[in-house]
Write the C-alpha cells for this entry.
Amino acid sequence: MKTMKITGQRGLVEAVLGLALLLGVFQSAYSIHFEVKDPLNSTCISADLFINFTVEYKVADKQEKVSFSLPNTASTDASSTCGKENATAPLLVIKFGNSHSLSINFTKLPLHYQVDELVFTYNLSDKELFPGATENGTKEVSSKNTAITAATNYSYKCVNPHLVAMGNVNVTFYNVSLEAYLNNRTVSLNATSCSEDTQPTSRPTTPSTTATPTTAPITPKTPDMGDYSVNTSSGAACILAKMGLQLNVTYIKKDDKEVSYEFNIDPKHVAVNGTCSNSSAVLILSSDIVYLLFNFTLNATASTFYLGQVFVNATVPDSKEPRFIVDSDKLSYLKTTTHKSYKCKSKQTLEIARNFSIDTYNLQIQAFDIDENKFGPAVECSEDQNGMLVPIVVGACLAGLVLIVLVAYLIGRKRSHAGYQTI
C-alpha cells in the first residue's frame, strides 16, 4: 500500500487495490492466491498475498529507489514443489513481469513450521520498473530472518504490514494468509497471528490520552518521553530513540464532516518491535489503537541515514471508515551523518501526508553504526539552531551598544581635556 500515489501506468487494478488499502479494507479479494500441488493434485501450500517491493538501484552515479506491487498477473512457477519427507522442503516460487521472481522456502520443526528463506530475483533490464538503470541483467537478494512462523497445522495470518529487509530491497507483506504442510490437504481454520497484529498484554490502569474517546477529541498535553531501541540478532542496537510523539490525523466522520484529531503515543502502553539490515532499520510501535512504523534508510555512498518511510494504521473516534491508514515511502526526514545522532529539543512537525503529520518533542535518534549501544555526537535540528540565534543576536546588539557608548564616552572625554590646555 502506498500513500497512495498511484501512477497511471499501473492501471485500474492497482488503483482499486490502492483505494481499498487506503480505506483500510484489507480484504482477501485484493490479495493474490497461489497454490502448490503434489502429483496427486492435492494442495500442500496455500497462500493469499499482497506484496510491495522497494528496490534501490544505481542510475549513473546516484542511487534511485523504486516501489512496485506484486501484479495480479503473478503466477505460481513450475519450479514450486511440495518437497519430499525428510529430503526436500516445500517451495513456493512466484514469477511475474520480465524475469522477476520471489521464492518462499519452508522448513518444519517439531511444533511449528516457518519460512526459512526468502529469495527475490529482479531484472534490471526491465526499464519499465527500473528506468535509467546503469546495470542490466538479474540480481538476487535473500534473507533468512523472515519472522514468518506458525504452529503445526495452523495457518499464518498477518493483516498489518510485515517487512523483510534484504540488503537494498525491502519486501513488505500485507493481508497475508499462508499455510504449508497442510493437514489432510485442507487449509486450517486455526491461525497463528504475526507480531504486528498482536496487541500488547498490558493495558492502561488509569485514563490515558491514548484511549479512544467516546466524546469530542480533546487536544492532549505534551506527550511523555519514550526510550525505544531495536537490536540486531547479535544484540547490537541498530536504532536508538528518545522522543515524545503526537499524531495529528484528519479524517471523515460518520456524519460526513471532516475533523482533526490529535493523540499521543504513550510509551508505557506500546509494544516495541523492529528489524535490522545493512541498509534498512525499522522501528514499530503498536498498541490497541495504533500501529506505527518508522523505516530508516542508509545511504552508504553519502554516509548518511534518514527517515524514508512512515506507515500508520490507527483507530480514530466515530470514523466513517473502519481504519485510518497512511503509508508514505518518499520521505527524507531526520537526515544526518552516520555514527552521529539527530537531536531536536524543539517541537518538530513531520508532514507525512495531506491528512497525517507527527509532532516530535525532545527527539534524539540514531540508526545504523551505533557504537557501544550509545548515541553518537548529536547534530542539532534547524529549529534548535534558530532558537539559539535570537539570544546570539540580542547579545551582539547589546555588545554593539556598549561599544558605541564606550567610544562616545572616550571621544567626549578627549574633547573635555582639550579645553583646559595651558597657554
Notes: The helical segments are 11-22, 382-418. Residues 1-29, 201-216 have pLDDT under 50 and may be disordered. The longest strand covers residues 43-59. DSSP finds two helices and 26 strands in the chain.
